[in-house]
Fold these 2 entries.
Entry 1:
Amino acid sequence: MQGRTTDSVEGGLPRLRALIRDTIRLETYEPAGDPSAWDAAERRVFGG
């Protein structure tokens, strides 16, 4: 967003989105280990 504020990236918001999409690699994380620990954490967060 600093690039947008300082006008250092031309093309507005669509160009900034494209710049981020093209330069940042997304990571996907999946829970691992004991499923009961994850189930307990889910109950603490969401209730149930």
Entry 2:
Amino acid sequence: MKDVFRRTLLAGLGAVSLTKERAESIVDELVKKGELSKDEAAKTVSELLDKSKEQREAVGEAIKTEVSKLRSEFGFVTRKEYDALLARVTVIEEKLGIKPVDEVVEAEVVPTPESAAEEAKDPEKEPS
């Protein structure tokens, strides 16, 4: 019964953002109502905070995974990949005696077959 109670409590609290003060406040209310003994209070606060931390970490990992999938799907480069390419370009420029350009040059966006097909379906839509 206590496990069901704790799970319900975690779900209702938004355990991902649970703070120690909030957990203590909730547990104190439960003690006042007689739903939890004073002996169980400290243990319950600790368990709630542990579960909250686990859920925050799980959410963080899920976000990292999704961002990685999107990066890969859209062909974006990571900062590490960008820095490596920049270093290579710098070396090539030095070997060729080219001074690096300090300003960003606007490149023409060439539509992909997918974006051209999408634009043909909906001509009102702004090109991406």
